[in-house]
Amino acid sequence: MKVETLTLVLVNLAGIMEKADESLLPGVYKEVGDALHTDPTGLGSLTLFRSMVQSACYPIAAYLAARHNRAHVIAYGAFLWAAATFLVAFSTTFFQLAVSRALNGVGLAIVSPAIQSLVADSSDESNRGVAFGWLQFTSNIGSLVGGYVSLLVAPITFMRIPGWRLSFHLVGMISVLVGVLVRLFANDPHFPDGDLRASSKVHGNNYTFISEIQGLLREAKSVVKIPSFQIIVAQGVLGSFPWSALSFAPMWLELTGFTHGETAILLSLFVVGDSIGGLFGGRMGDILSQRLPNSGRIILAQISSGSAIPLAAILLLSLPDDPSSIFAHGLVLFVSGFFISWTAPATNNPIFAEIVPEKARTSIYALDRSFESVLSSFAPPVVGILAQNVYGYRPIAQGADSIATDRENATSLSKALFTAIGSPMALCCVIYSFLYCTYPRDKEKAQMEALIESEMQLLALDPTSLSGEYSLVKYSENQESYLDEKTVDDMDYSEVDGLDFEDGDDKSLIYRRPTISKFAE
Question: Which of 376, 407, 440 is the last residue of a domain?
Fold first, then answer.
């Protein structure tokens, strides 16, 4: 097997275990709540703790993935989250569990941007949607594995160890194994010679840690200024809210009356639909982007987010709270997963790769996850508060009819879930509309930045090669002195607009590209 293929396989395997680890706790909310005497609000806060720490660590992840071998970063991240997963399994109090889940977020945060940037670097505009679709597909396999493990092992007791604790031990051990495999056999194409750091390869050995941090901050500042990034993050904050709220889906299905096995099957149908939908959406995004370069991906995202509202209404408000309706629940869950999974592989992730230069891709993915995770992490506690204080969820009292109470609680939880899904998705659909104005301009600006950087690098290698009429960057004497004082790393992406091209310059990037081939003549 080729090194590149093996690396992609191992990276996707790490993505599988990342999502498996994330989906463990929601699958055993009911058992954890019973064992630690915790209500839905407390259970939701566990995800909040992990997500907040995870969000705070994304800037660190951006630094590590941009300056170090990304395959090694993924491996060490796997070791970190595995250690925290073992701590969850050993927790005996709610406080210990909360601290363990918070530490778990550190390892998960380190891995995600490195995986996404590796996928982006290995694809181009014609197949980037499919590449991210496959990443979503394999990640969903991880969610499926985590959900199955937690739900099916939950009723089991082995050597007086409750099943929910066993599931965390099992996933922790597999995560360690995956981390070892990635560390030994995966390869970052930017670092074919092993541990060499990016800063040494790109900037030389004279760069200090402080200067690297300053460069990273300048890069982050430039990314945050991009209008399309701001729009996608704004919708992403709202769009991540429903997905976080769905962490209560296993609990809702069990309260409806479905067994652990039936709940696992129903959630598997949703994940399968989501996986197939990710591949379909990614492929359709690539096709539409070829025919409608400036709007195709955006149209697909609006269809996906808009369809979530009626599908959620059917699933949560129309279907009966009765385990005999398992076929109807399964069908709606599958269709819902298929339609609402297009936005990331078809729109968000490919657009991120197109609106910044290649060197800033890790930063843009890390910043996106950081901003989105901060607010979306409040979704589980909000669902718990709505269920208890607005829609009448109440813990089962001693001597009460548990079946009747469970049905009432299922109704309360379903209403809370719809509130947390319907409103954010409607706003997402509206916010995507602003991309029609900003995306074409930001994409062309990034392409121009890449061409300018290419010329400046050639100029550094051979100052005589970029002279005269073949130079793309034609600037006046004052602009020349300005560029002499700034390195490529110091340039703000928005500063591309500050270069005043002469009237005789070609207006389209398509016509600028041939000038580069003339440099070698």
Answer: 440
**493: its two tokens:** 């992406």
What's the length of the chain?
Answer: 521
CATH code, 162: 1.20.1250.20
Residue span of the structural domain in which 367 resides: 3-192+213-440
161: part of which helix (H) or strand (E)?
Answer: strand 161-162
Neighbours of 484 (CB within 10 A): 8
Residues 251/316, Cβ–Cβ less than 8 Å: no
Give tens-digit pLDDT for 177-213: 999 999 888 888 777 665 545 444 444 455 566 777 7
Is residue 157 helix, strand or coil?
strand
Residue 248: alpha-carbon gap to chain centroid: 20
Residues 183 and 308 in one domain: yes
Beta-carbon contacts of 15 under 8 Å, excluding residues fewer than 6 positions away, are 111, 115, 135, 138, 139, 142
Closest CA to 228 of 331, 277, 301: 301
How does strand 161-162 pair with strand 157-158? antiparallel
User: What total of structural domains would you count in the chain?
Assistant: 2
Q: pTM value? A: 0.70
* CA distance linking residue 414 with residue 95, whole number of Å: 28
User: Which candidate, 245, 422, 419, 243, places its Cα nearest to that of 344?
Assistant: 243
Q: How far apart are the first and last CA of the chain?
A: 39
